Amino acid sequence: MELLSSWCYDGSLPESYVMPPERRPGNLVIPLEKSIPVIDLQCHDPKDTIQQILKASQDYGFFQVINHGVSEELMDETMNVAEEFHAMPGLDKERECGKGANGSCKLYTSSYAYSREDFHYWRDAVTHPCRPLDERIQYWPEKPTRYREVVGTYSVEMWKLSCRILEFICEGLGLSVDYFSNDLTQVPKIMINHYPPCPAPSLTLGLSKHCDPTIITILLQGQINGLQVFKDGRWIGVQPLPHALVVNIGYLLQIISNGKLKGAEHRVVTNSRYARTTICFFVYPRDESLIEPAKDLVNASNPAIYKAFKFVDFVTAFVLNPDDTSEAVKELITPNP
Ligand code: OGA
Ligand code: NI
After folding, report:
1. pLDDT means per 10 residues in the chain (337 residues)?
2. Which segments constitute the Fe2OG dioxygenase domain (predicted)?
3. Ligand 1 centroid to 69 CA: how many Å?
4. Does ligand 1 lie within 6 Å of residue 279's CB atom?
5. Which domains does the chain have, with CATH numbers?
6. Inter-CA distances, 265 with 58, 105, 238, 311, Å
7. Angle at 280 (CA atoms; ends 43, 224), nearest 5 degrees
8. Is the whole-model pTM more than 0.85?
């Protein structure tokens, strides 16, 4: 495995990144006239905020939040540290990510299953769990020098924001507000993606069409376009808004809501001019957590449309089939007729 960011490529896209025509991004110029909803969290009527979040989660599975309470300075600092990390030489990155046992900090390129992929994706990534912080932080990179301090503070803010958004969602769905205050959300992870400028954006992708295997995801995407959401059979671009955060509903919340909320499919396209760095906060359950439609949302007229499964089995199905994650989990979640 060699990281994309440490290559000296000769200006052409290597064969292993060229997708078959049906998987290529198609028209790269996506009209921005239809965009995902933008929700102001400082709005003074919580009922209204809940309604907006619920509607966006049903219609799009995606929304952006503004006035979310996370300081702009912290967001900028975190983005700077993230960019500095990916700008370090490959060997430094490997050393900085090798401080703990397997899983405590992972560095990879393309997807988590590089060796099993039919073709590769144009991105590098580093990921590590971030709670409880004092147990996890000792395995994080120590270079750039401010990495632990800044990313640690950012992860605490993301944790608070994710709890707040999940409380809104609980109220909207009619679940008790502490429905997610348990094993369902206790293993959040930070992931810092980096998509270098790409020699042939029309032939490849930064990330293939997928739905996150999370409860929710909060994304800081910086200034560069690249994220697209699949809605009603077409792709919509997620326009970068300064200091907004992008929130998406994960597959697990789609299941827990018994299909009421949509774990939207999305992908990342590349561009030939600018590097793009993004920071994800993934809200994950513990491995042994049982994922199933919430009992309060299921009754005789609304039967469960998904089977119960252990989170670890779901993740395994995902990892085993990096090129088509939706096929991989279909069998696992579909109830017997
Ligand atoms: C992801 C993802 C979007 C982006 O990492 O799951 O969808 O813009 N990232 O990097
Ligand atoms: Ni994603």
Report:
1. 72 88 81 82 92 97 97 98 96 94 89 83 95 96 98 98 98 97 97 95 93 96 95 91 97 96 94 96 97 96 93 84 69 68
2. 186-285
3. 22
4. no
5. 34-293 (2.60.120.330)
6. 13, 26, 13, 19
7. 85
8. yes
